[in-house]
Recover the amino acids of this structure.
């Protein structure tokens, strides 16, 4: 953990070589990337970052916009003197990665949107966010626990006891302010569909066939808009492919990194 401009930022830094940055989703922390970090840090330098309010990172306001979170990420990567990297964002982390691409595109060698989308919230989804914010204020624990079960494909749940317990611990330790600030930020996020054709690096969309949070149906069309877009469809995963289909996810990410960085 380091303190930059008076803010604590939680992160991990392991391995050597070309750099892959992992950004977690909502309401998670960098801990979710531990298995992939272990698998990939023999070949790459892996940075995992706690987004504001999550894990060891402090809140930076009452609305955590995707832009403000992207600035938080950039501040840390600059501090580590990193200039060029691939960013892989899970869901909300993917929204942050897109905001990063809009602001600091020249630093990217590639982008992985893991169960994420370049589309902004539809009006009904914004109304759902307001309901979610009210629910968090009433009973944070009940809200997050109910949400976490929906992240996995129902048939995978019996095998997911450990990840689910881990996620409950993370969410249980996250403050209501951080959860509300992230929901507010996701609600007002920019639509980046029009940016996709401008991206001059490869983009990988990893989608779960059984994902009820980010349905895989619109993802193929988004990949087609990219100059170098591709989709990895995880047949047996919901919204948590790195836990539900770890081997296929790792293989897909490795292949994509070779494309971004050259053979390894
Ligand atoms: C996430 O998994 O990061 C969030 O559920 C994404 C969202 O709510 O849009």
């Amino acid at each position: 953990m380091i303190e930059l401009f008076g803010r604590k930022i939680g992160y991990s830094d392991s391995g050597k070589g070309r750099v892959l940055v992992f950004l977690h989703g909502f309401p998670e922390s960098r801990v979710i990337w531990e298995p992939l970090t272990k698998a990939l840090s023999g070949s790459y330098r892996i940075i995992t970052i706690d987004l504001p309010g999550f894990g060891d990172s402090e809140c930076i306001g009452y609305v955590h916009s995707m832009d403000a979170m992207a600035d938080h990420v950039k501040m840390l990567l600059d501090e580590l003197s990193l200039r060029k990297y691939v960013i892989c964002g899970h869901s909300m982390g993917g929204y942050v990665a897109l905001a990063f691409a809009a602001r600091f595109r020249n630093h990217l060698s590639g982008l992985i949107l893991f169960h994420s989308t370049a589309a902004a919230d539809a009006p009904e989804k914004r109304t759902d966010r307001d309901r979610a914010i009210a629910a968090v204020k009433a009973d944070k624990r009940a809200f997050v626990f109910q949400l976490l079960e929906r992240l996995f494909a129902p048939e995978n749940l019996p095998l997911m006891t450990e990840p689910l317990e881990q996620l409950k611990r993370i969410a249980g330790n996250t403050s209501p302010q951080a959860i509300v600030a992230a929901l507010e930020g996701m609600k007002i996020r920019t639509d980046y569909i029009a940016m996709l054709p401008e991206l001059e690096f490869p983009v990988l969309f990893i989608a779960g066939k059984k994902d009820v949070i980010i349905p895989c149906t619109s993802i193929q069309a988004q990949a087609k808009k990219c100059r170098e877009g591709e989709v990895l469809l995880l047949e047996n995963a919901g919204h948590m492919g790195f836990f539900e289909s770890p081997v296929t996810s790792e293989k897909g990410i490795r292949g994509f990194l070779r494309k971004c960085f050259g053979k390894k």
